[in-house]
Amino acid sequence: MGEKTEFEPGDKAPNNGVYMEVGEASFHTEITNPQQVKLHKGEPFPETTNKDRKWKKKTKARVH
């Protein structure tokens, strides 16, 4: 099994990095000005601006 890539508010950050909000189906949902946070390993994720959103590491949240 691979590493988890989407996180809920309150989950702990697995690594240092910049995380951003993504929609439920991130490759279909365009979010205008998504919230971004810089976290260190072990810090909890803050609340999202919408209950249907999750956190994803910025480098993995890009759409190809």
Task: Write a concise synopsis of the structure shown.
It is built from 1 helix and 4 strands, in the order ββββα. It is mainly beta. A 4-stranded antiparallel beta sheet has the order 1-4-2-3.
User: How are strands sequenced across the largest beta sheet?
Assistant: 1-4-2-3
Q: What does the largest sheet look like? A: 4 strands, antiparallel
End-to-end gap:
23 Å
Percent range of helical residues: under 10%
Mean pLDDT: 84
What is the beta-strand fraction?
25-35%
**Extended strand count:** 4
List the total number of helices: 1
Helix and strand succession? EEEEH
* Shape label: globular
* Low-pLDDT windows of residues: none
* Rg measurement, Å: 11 Å
- Secondary structure class reads mainly beta
Structural description of this entry:
- This protein has 64 residues and is mainly β.
- 6% of the residues lie in helices and 25% in strands.
- It has a four-stranded antiparallel β-sheet with strand order 1-4-2-3.
- The mean pLDDT is 84.
- This is YjzC family protein.
Topology:
Blueprint: E1 6-7, E2 17-22, E3 36-39, E4 54-57, H1 58-61
Region (Disordered): 34-64
Biased composition (Basic residues): 53-64
Biased composition (Basic and acidic residues): 40-52
Question: Which tags fit this structure?
Answer:
YjzC family protein; 64 residues; YjzC; globular; 4-stranded antiparallel beta sheet; 6% helix; 1 helix; 4 strands
